[in-house]
């Protein structure tokens, strides 16, 4: 008998590593079996706004256009602390994993029947965040047309990193799609770092996890890497699908009192500190 199909292998890996997370959201102090510690920052929003099931989701790799300029993303613990070679020359390890994870999310989302597509500017150094080719600019246009834009990141290692979680857009009340992703991965407060460049333009940021420890070792292990990326992608896709479900009798709601931006966002900031 040959090896099990890849889809079954992904399910088995997910069951082994993530069953506790699927049963219930782990407490902030209880690391996720695969993605590690979650954000322990305050929860000051609730996503209640319903989106149409036809909403098109745009998935983009974080830092895809900021190599060699401010905010290239974290090099990861393996490179910065232990001297491992980078996964690719000329780009940060975070971007390497952002690219693979975003592509896997779109691939698995399309297999599931979601309206989901991928954008990569393919120009790795763009100085201005408002250049029309950047993920921020393309994401802002996509949201303005009625879509949902999601940028994929891995967080900095060590004390500079916070952990997994969703950073919601700041230009509209949080949605049920935001809520679903936050329940799966954790959450950041509305005005994290004074308002990041992506969320200020309507782009949600998903920090998958800190690029360190078991998560980074699993990603770097050639025998497990692609399965781990697919397992993470499957969790994202499941959360997206849940967030677009339309509960019977539920009409679109606005965010509850206190779950709105209470202060103007600060200047553009990169999503990851790029520690190392």
Layout of secondary structure:
Layout lengths: L5 H18 L33 E5 L15 H6 L10 H20 L3 E3 L16 H10 L3 E8 L9 E3 L8 H10 L11 H4 L2 E8 L2 H8 L4 H19 L33
Helix pairs in contact: 1-8, 3-8, 5-8
Note the main attributes of this structure:
alpha/beta, Aminopeptidase, 10% strand, five-stranded mixed sheet, 8 helices
Provide a brief overview of the structure.
Helix content is 34%, strand content 10%.
Describe the structure.
This protein is α/β, with parallel strands linked by helices. It has one domain: Zn-dependent exopeptidases (Aminopeptidase), CATH 3.40.630. The chain is built from eight helices and five strands, in the order H-E-H-H-E-H-E-E-H-H-E-H-H. It has helices spanning 6-23, 77-82, 93-112, 135-144, 176-185, 197-200, 213-220, 225-243, and strands at residues 57-61, 116-118, 148-155, 165-167, 203-210. It has a five-stranded mixed sheet. The model is unreliable at 8-12, 15-28 and 250-266 (pLDDT under 50).
């Amino acid at each position: 008998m040959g090896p099990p199909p890849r889809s079954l292998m992904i399910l088995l890996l997910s069951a082994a590593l993530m069953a506790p997370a699927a049963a219930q959201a782990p407490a902030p102090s209880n690391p996720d079996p695969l993605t590690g510690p979650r954000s322990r920052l305050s929860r000051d929003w609730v996503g209640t706004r319903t989106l149409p099931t036809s909403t098109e989701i745009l998935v983009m790799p974080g830092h895809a256009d900021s190599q060699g300029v401010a905010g290239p993303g974290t090099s990861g613990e393996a490179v910065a602390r232990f001297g491992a070679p980078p996964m690719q020359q000329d780009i940060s390890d975070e971007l390497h994993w952002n690219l693979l994870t975003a592509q896997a999310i779109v691939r698995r989302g399309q297999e599931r029947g979601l309206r989901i597509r991928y954008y990569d500017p393919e120009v790795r150094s763009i100085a201005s965040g408002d250049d029309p080719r950047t993920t921020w600019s393309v994401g802002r246009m996509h949201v303005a047309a009625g879509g949902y834009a999601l940028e994929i990141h891995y967080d900095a290692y060590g004390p500079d990193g916070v952990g997994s979680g969703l950073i919601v857009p700041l230009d509209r009340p949080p949605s049920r799609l935001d809520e679903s992703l936050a329940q799966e991965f954790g959450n950041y407060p509305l005005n994290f770092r004074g308002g990041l460049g992506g969320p200020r333009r309507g782009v949600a940021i998903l920090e998958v996890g800190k690029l360190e420890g078991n998560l980074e070792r699993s990603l770097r292990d050639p025998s497990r890497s692609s399965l781990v990326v697919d397992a993470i992608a499957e969790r994202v896709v499941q959360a997206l699908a849940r967030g677009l479900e339309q509960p019977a009798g539920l009409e679109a709601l606005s965010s509850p009192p206190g779950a709105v931006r209470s202060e103007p966002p600060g200047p553009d900031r990169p999503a990851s500190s790029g520690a190392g």
